[in-house]
Hints:
Blueprint: E1 2-9, E2 19-26, H1 33-43, E3 63-66, E4 69-72, H2 78-85, E5 88-91, E6 98-100, E7 103-104, H3 107-115, H4 155-159, H5 161-165, H6 172-182, H7 189-199, H8 213-217, H9 224-237, H10 244-259, H11 267-272, H12 276-291, H13 306-316
Parallel strand pairs: 1-5
Antiparallel strand pairs: 1-2, 3-4, 3-5, 6-7
The site of FE2/S2 (inorganic) cluster has 12 residues, from loops.
Amino acid sequence: MRLTFLLQRFNPETDAHPHVEPYRLDIGRGLTVLDALLRIKQEQDGTLALRYSCRSAICGSCAMQINGAEKLACRTSVRKELERHGHIAVAPLPNFPVIKDLVVDMAAFWDKVRAVTPWLAVSVRATPGQEIRPLTLPRDRYQFHNVDACIMCGACVGACTSHEVSRQFLGPAALAKAERFLADPREPADAKRTRLRFLEQPHGIWDCTRCNLCVEVCPKDVQPMEAIIRLRRAAIEAGLTQSGGARHLTGFLALIRREGRLNEALMPLLVVGLHLRRLLHIAPLGMRMLLHGKVPSPWAPPIPGIAQVRAIFSALGRLTRIG
Ligand code: SF4
Ligand code: SF4
Ligand code: FES
């Protein structure tokens, strides 16, 4: 079968903008997108730039956008893509600067991974040269979920909606890596707290919009969003409740428990507190909501079924502290 591949090309030395170039290729059975790209490079256009190494979904270097989704080219079947989309369009990972064609600059990605201290941190009371003991069962009860399966491919960052609007967001891969070490029982409590204090800062755990795209695209089932939720839970359990995100969560829950519904008139006060400058910042939005009838009375009574809502909160017990 002869098939057209639509490849996004961009050479910063000669091109003002990225553009799409078609390549026709005879394909057989069992071909992956990476196989097809390598054949295009070898048989038709040696200038095509792409990154790969293991060809076995291990090294994480061939992540790119295939038919609009972030995937590893070496484990993406041409036939399946064709069946699902009727064509094969390949572009570099979004949210990364493009070096050339399908090769992106991962420098900021690695900076963020380094920033989360991707190793076991020691206690402030640790003695120099103190050794880290191996994990042993049943002494150590730990659950890394699957975060240690991450191959650092960057697909989750390419898909991340929060990263799309803020390149400063630490991002799903780095945060999942941080959770791996937070979950490690050998890391002392004071080191864990220091870790959480860093992660609750702006551009950290509270910047995630919970869009779930990182979970959908991850080729290793790391489920970064779930790791971020565990980090949030740990931060609140550690008493780190003053960041905007934490205040939003606890304020939201307090309102539901008290009134059985969200009260947009009170929510800003719970999130921002009596911080005049920040209140003034959101005042225009509040005014527009008021004019459109979107702000209920702050003195509105609870919903009729509030007793059942409170019963649910009681049944959920401590879980309801953090949602
Ligand atoms: S979490 Fe998944 S998608 Fe993200 S870098 Fe790791 S393996 Fe890749
Ligand atoms: S769930 Fe959060 S971290 Fe994952 S892609 Fe969405 S915004 Fe990004
Ligand atoms: S080439 Fe290594 S993951 Fe695809």
